[in-house]
């Protein structure tokens, strides 16, 4: 029986980076969590403890901070590309990199040049892989919480002896959107593209009369692909944040879709991929989201 070393990578996880760019009295804030991973011929350190080819994770952390000083961070996709290419270009034994960045939003307090309020739980994300001279960019967002109080139905599903859910032609539909979209190429206006994809997701959720959250998921992904040619595919994860009618009949009251309780768990989890049939081969793109 032979025992061999399989795929491996290493890096610095969750480097917290906050930058302040000053334009006179007006300040611009960036709040990021950056994770770096390096790949290559790293058998020696695993098998013998020889660290000659190991770029220390502390060095990776320091590189993140130094890059943030040497040039404006800019859009997270561009920052990730710069970091990833640096490690591949600077160390001969490093053949590939994976850079993950979450951006935590802050809003300027109205009327103030250098005071901010946190935007909430929503995060902008990117995952960049550099390998063999190619770059793959997968961007997205996490925890975009949305709700509409009508325009959603759910009925016609199978019933058996375990089914208790009542059918409805008018319900609250709520979810916390996790979205990832794969770009074709990397010469893209990242800020505009992200803002437009987010807008399309929101507008489609609001406008689409929904017969199921699955139908809404597909409509959201389809709308992005129809309007944004730089996007090859969209992956969505939509937890169904259930809102159930409260039974007010013991109090002699009628509940006409006005009073609900929000159940945080368990919840339905709807996930799916919407893609172009003529999109380029994703290559390593989705590996940016997995361990290897």
Automatic annotation (TrEMBL):
InterPro entries: Uricase, Uricase_CS
Chain positions recorded as urate binding sites: 57-58, 154, 171, 214, 240
Active site, renumbered: 12 (charge relay system), 57 (charge relay system), 242 (charge relay system)
Sorted UniProt keywords: Oxidoreductase, Purine metabolism
Residues reported in the UniProt entry to bind O2: 57, 240
Enzyme class: oxidoreductase
The enzyme's E.C. designation: 1.7.3.3
Pathway recorded for this protein: Purine metabolism; urate degradation; (S)-allantoin from urate: step 1/3
Any one GO BP annotation for this protein: purine nucleobase metabolic process
Catalytic activity: urate + O2 + H2O = 5-hydroxyisourate + H2O2
GO molecular function, one term: urate oxidase activity
The UniProt record lists the keyword Acetylation: no
Residues reported to bind 5-hydroxyisourate: 57, 154, 171, 214, 240
Role of this protein: Catalyzes the oxidation of uric acid to 5-hydroxyisourate, which is further processed to form (S)-allantoin.
NCBIfam families noted in UniProt: urate_oxi
Family, as annotated: Belongs to the uricase family.
PANTHER family: URICASE
Protein name: Uricase
């Amino acid at each position: 029986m032979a025992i061999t070393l399989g795929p491996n990578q290493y890096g610095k996880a969750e480097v917290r980076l906050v930058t302040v760019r000053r334009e006179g009295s007006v300040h611009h804030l960036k709040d990021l969590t950056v994770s770096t991973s390096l790949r290559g011929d790293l058998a020696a350190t695993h098998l013998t403890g020889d660290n000659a080819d190991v770029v220390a994770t502390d060095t990776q952390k320091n590189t993140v901070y130094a890059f943030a000083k040497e040039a404006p961070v800019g859009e997270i996709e561009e920052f990730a590309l710069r970091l990833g290419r640096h490690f591949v270009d600077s160390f001969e034994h490093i053949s590939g990199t994976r850079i993950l960045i979450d951006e935590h939003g802050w809003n300027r307090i109205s009327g103030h040049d250098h005071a901010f309020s946190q935007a909430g739980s929503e995060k902008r994300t990117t995952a960049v892989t550099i390998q063999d001279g190619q770059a793959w960019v997968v961007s997205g967002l996490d925890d975009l919480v949305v709700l509409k109080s009508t325009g959603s139905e759910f009925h016609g599903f199978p019933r058996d002896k375990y089914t208790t859910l009542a059918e409805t032609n008018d319900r609250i539909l709520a979810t916390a959107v996790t979205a990832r979209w794969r770009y074709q190429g990397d010469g893209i206006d990242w800020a505009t593209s992200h803002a437009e994809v987010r807008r399309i997701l929101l507008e489609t959720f609001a406008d689409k009369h929904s017969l199921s959250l699955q139908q809404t998921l597909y409509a959201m992904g389809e709308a992005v692909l129809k309007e944004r040619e730089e996007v090859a595919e969209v992956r969505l994860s939509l937890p169904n944040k259930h809102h159930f009618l409260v039974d007010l009949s013991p109090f002699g009251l009628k509940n006409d879709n006005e009073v609900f309780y929000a159940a945080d768990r368990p919840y339905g989890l709807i996930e799916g991929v919407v893609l172009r049939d003529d999109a380029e081969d994703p290559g390593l793109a989705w590996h940016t989201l997995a361990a290897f």
